[in-house]
Amino acid sequence: MRLRRAARFARTRARELRMIVKALVSTKHPILVHIIPMRRCNLACTYCNEFDDVSTPVPLDEMKRRLDLLADMGTSIITISGGEPLLHPEIDEVIWHIRRRGIIAGMITNGFFLNQDRIERLNRAGLEHLQISIDNITPDEVSKKSLKTLDGRLEMLAQHAVFQVNINSVLGSGVKNPEDALQIAHRAVALGFTSTVGIIHDNNGQLKPLGEHEQNIFEEIMELGKRSFSRFNEFQHNVARGREHNWRCRSGSRYLYICERGLVHWCSQQRGYPGIPLAQYSPEMRHREYSTEKFCAPRCTVSCVQQVGILDNWRDPQNLKPMPMDPSPQTPELVQIGPAGDIQ
Ligand code: SF4
Ligand code: SF4
Description:
By secondary structure, the protein is an alpha/beta fold. It is built from 10 helices and 11 strands. The protein has a 9-stranded mixed beta sheet, sandwiched between helices. Strands 9-11 form a two-stranded antiparallel sheet. Helix 2 packs parallel to helix 3 (91-100), helix 3 (91-100) packs parallel to helix 4 (116-125) and helix 6 packs parallel to helix 7 (212-224). The two termini are 29 Å apart. One iron/sulfur cluster (SF4) is lined by residues 41, 43-45, 48, 50-51, 82-84, 110, 145, 341-342.
């Protein structure tokens, strides 16, 4: 197991380095895409508006068609998100299709459906990254994603997963016990995983500085998470201190969020724009979004898009405004979410 894990880790790191070089050489392709095969979730965390309890899985053929479109754009990484992606009955085939098209495959899950058989199927499908967000030590009325509930599944992952596992803990508004995040991060590292910390902002989606005690915990977790690429990210330190951040958000171009209906959105927090079906989302549209200034950037808390932004922050200032919206938009939703659910 250790050898298999080391081999996949080395291969994935080599592919990540190639991804970075490709991203530095050309700005024409998406670096990271989040795609939703399943909006339904088995949980109902009170801060989250990225799930429902009724929707059906996106059919496999449709998922493959969307993945092929993304592969043809030259996408480097696709992360499957939700809802809860493990509720999708053909999720292994979705992962396998991503790998078959030469793309790095990741997944964000609440972890509740993981068992030895599930983990081995994910190994065989070729999954390379898995992230689980854990919100507290014991379940409460806000979130059931607790260390107590999930620890047995984490041990199974430590024993059987050949893919990389990251455990994300949270600090900030609404988190009752900030010490929980530190305990979760220590447990992650003890099991051989990487650890990151997300900061939940207030209900208006605004940055809110952490208190001094929480900031100390934040810095300690960031230090523990030094194996993760997020250590290069000054952005999170600014978020922790409630400071505005000066960067160029390349969502709609270098980062895409594809909802269950196959529409392109800036990100999980700005759903509804541009709201164009992926099949109609042309290179010109991506190029335009690359140069479009995002009004929400200075106070943004979405760290994955920020990490993608690092590769282009040094070049190509943004001087365009968002395109006018279609008067009969393809989607009724236009959501500006506060806390970012499982997305980090
Ligand atoms: S945060 Fe994740 S686990 Fe919780 S309801 Fe949202 S999608 Fe489900
Ligand atoms: S919320 Fe953040 S990631 Fe989303 S579009 Fe705005 S700046 Fe970009």
